[in-house]
UniProtKB/TrEMBL annotation:
It comes from Nonomuraea coxensis DSM 45129. It comes from the Bacteria. It is an enzyme of class 4 (lyase). The keyword Lyase applies. This is Glyoxylate carboligase. Keywords: Lyase, Thiamine pyrophosphate. The keyword Lyase applies. Residues 8-119 form the Thiamine pyrophosphate enzyme N-terminal TPP-binding domain. Gene3D superfamilies: 3.40.50.970, TPP-binding domain (3.40.50.1220). Residues 191-327 form the Thiamine pyrophosphate enzyme central domain. Residues 388-540 form the Thiamine pyrophosphate enzyme TPP-binding domain.
Length: 573
């Protein structure tokens, strides 16, 4: 077997694992890796900050389902990646971060930019490892990809000391291939028990979490729901797992990203089949309210997720796709497709009666109107990227999603600044797609230097900024305490003119202050991004004191209206 530079073997592994783009910043301690990368088919996008690189790799991974890769040098490059690693771990995103390191003999001598990044990264990764021998290089990376993909996916960090990078190893890419990844199937008796519970319920719902999308199980989910005529809800991470214009769509339940009618439907349900959902606290709220009167069947690929938040009535370990397929097979064996019953009609009635308004003509613009225009203008295949804050909550409450991997959100970690680099990663993965980043004014400022990267590499997408000139979510959270420590961001008092900032990057931008101008601005931005091959900003000035409907528990939202004909009737089959 031929002996080659071990970094060439590593790059060959990356290529065979389906990586076509990596994001990173070169540095002295990672140059042997970059020298090998130059001779490969892999595109390298040089970012402006290593955290931005991790978020770009994250976006690439979310939209492709493959393992994203970010590269940096030693010291602060690795520590800058920690937020991105945590974000990927929290949202089950497969990613590999590669860091350079000082020479092995210098690590105990406090050498320049020598930090024990493996120990720093261990709590926010599935595996953190330092390469010790050049001969291990291709095999450590094969294992890194396997671990990133296996079970509940997540990030891996591989640290490369400079002297090890310079070594050689025996490797033949024709004799190597990706390692197999186990796809666990559920026990047949557990499937039968789950179907017994479903058949015995009067008002069941299926709750689709992010695991349905990660597991490529959306077709199985839809087939099962249609066969049984069971309404389907989604979590924030599960948006896109089920078309939101489907007759069986039952909205979203939660204390922040939710629909009023989704909360009402959930509270009326008597059984929840949760697939690939982790019962995050922003979804459940008060567990006593969330669990009261309902039976829970929890399906997850990761055994330790079962019972982590509360004990289900039935736990099933299994990959989402074979588990939903097995449930469908069991349902078909017990009878033909069902017709819609009273419970399905009840959910449809709640949707008609409890939809929130989004047709406001007020000035300043009310945020729901922005999302009405977004829903009306952009096509079903558009990929949206959003992060954390009031704009994420409004997005979850108002934005419609129809297809998997078209609504990307940093749901659990919630790092500000995630949207722009993530959108860049999405566009690199799918240049043919329309990509839209919905951002807040403050979040945009966290990593807005990555706009320069998108401009340099001609990576076009539309940025829609919901600007209330506040740290709006913090302001809303402070109201019960009578405090007002939120940063005031309006122009002239520490704020930024975002239109001028975009123009400084060489990118088009427009500010909108009237609701009647929104559609024209979106049309202009979409055309300009495609024509100029640049990121384009539409800054929408919204009502400063606008709040998002939230409550400590599902039944605490003060927006319900009297529905005597719906509430008093017995809608059980």
């Amino acid at each position: 077997m031929k002996r080659i530079p071990c970094m060439e073997a590593v790059v060959a592994v990356l290529e065979s694992e389906g990586v076509d783009t990596v994001f990173g910043i070169p540095g002295a301690a990672i140059l042997p890796f970059y020298a090998a990368l130059r001779g490969s088919s892999i595109r390298h996008v040089t970012v402006r900050h290593e955290e931005g690189g991790t978020h770009a790799a994250d976006g690439w991974a979310r939209v492709t389902g493959n393992v994203g890769v970010c590269v940096g040098t030693s010291g602060p490059a690795g520590t800058n990646m920690i937020t991105g690693l945590y974000t990927a771990l929290a949202d089950s995103i497969p990613m590999i971060c590669v860091t350079g390191q000082a020479e092995s003999a210098k690590l105990h001598q406090e050498a320049f930019q020598a930090v024990d990044i493996v120990e720093v990264a261990r709590p926010v990764t599935k595996w953190a490892v330092q390469l010790k021998e050049p001969a291990q290089a291709p095999w450590v990376f094969r294992e890194a990809f396997r671990i990133a993909r296996s079970g509940r996916p997540g990030p891996v960090l591989v640290d490369l000391p400079l002297d090890v990078q310079r070594g050689t190893c025996r490797y033949d890419r024709d004799l190597d291939a990706p390692l197999p990844v186990e796809v666990p199937s559920p026990l047949p008796k557990a499937v039968r028990r789950a179907m017994d519970l479903l058949e015995g319920a009067r008002r069941p719902i299926i709750l689709a979490g992010g695991g349905v999308i990660i597991g490529e199980a959306t077709e199985e989910l839809r087939a099962l729901a249609e066969h049984l005529q069971v309404p389907v809800q989604v979590t924030l991470m599960g948006k896109g797992a089920f078309p939101e214009d489907h007759p069986l769509f039952a909205g979203m339940a939660g204390i922040q990203t939710q629909t009023r009618w989704g909360n009402a439907a959930f509270l009326d349900s008597d059984l929840v089949l949760a697939v690939g959902a982790r019962f995050g606290d922003r979804h459940t709220g008060d567990l006593d309210v969330y669990r009261r009167g309902r039976t829970f069947v929890h399906v997850d690929i990761e055994p330790t997720q079962l019972g982590r938040v509360f004990e289900p009535d039935l736990g099933i370990v299994g990959h989402a796709r074979p588990t939903l397929a097995a449930l469908l097979g069991e349902a078909r064996a017990r009878g033909g497709p069902r017709a819609p019953g009273k419970w399905v009609r009840r959910v449809a009635g709640l949707r008609r009666a409890l939809n929130r308004r989004d047709d406001f003509d007020d000035v300043p613009i009310k945020p729901p109107r922005v999302f009405r225009e977004i829903n009306d203008f952009f096509g079903r295949d558009t990929t949206f990227v959003t992060a954390i804050g009031l704009y994420q909550i409004w997005s979850g409450q108002f934005q419609a999603t129809y297809l998997p991997r078209r609504y990307l959100v940093c749901g659990q970690a919630g790092p500000l600044g995630w949207e722009v680099p993530a959108a860049m990663g999405v566009k690199c993965a799918h240049p043919e797609r329309q990509v839209v980043a919905v951002v807040g004014d403050y979040s945009f400022q966290f990593l807005m230097e990555e706009v320069a990267v998108a401009a340099q590499h001609r990576i076009p997408f539309v940025i829609i900024m919901i600007n209330n000139e506040y740290l709006g979510l913090i302001r809303q959270a402070e109201l019960p305490y009578g405090m007002n420590y939120a940063v005031d961001l309006h122009y002239g008092e520490g704020g930024i003119d975002h239109v001028k900032a975009m123009e400084a990057f060489g990118c088009p931008a427009r500010r909108v202050e009237l609701p009647g101008d929104l559609r024209d601005a979106l049309s202009w931005a979409s055309a300009a991004a495609a024509r100029e091959r640049l990121p384009v900003l539409v800054e929408v000035m919204v009502e400063r004191e606008a709040n998002a409907a939230m409550g400590p528990a599902l039944d605490a939202i003060k927006e319900y209206e009297p529905l005597p004909e719906l509430i008093s009737a017995d809608w059980s089959d």
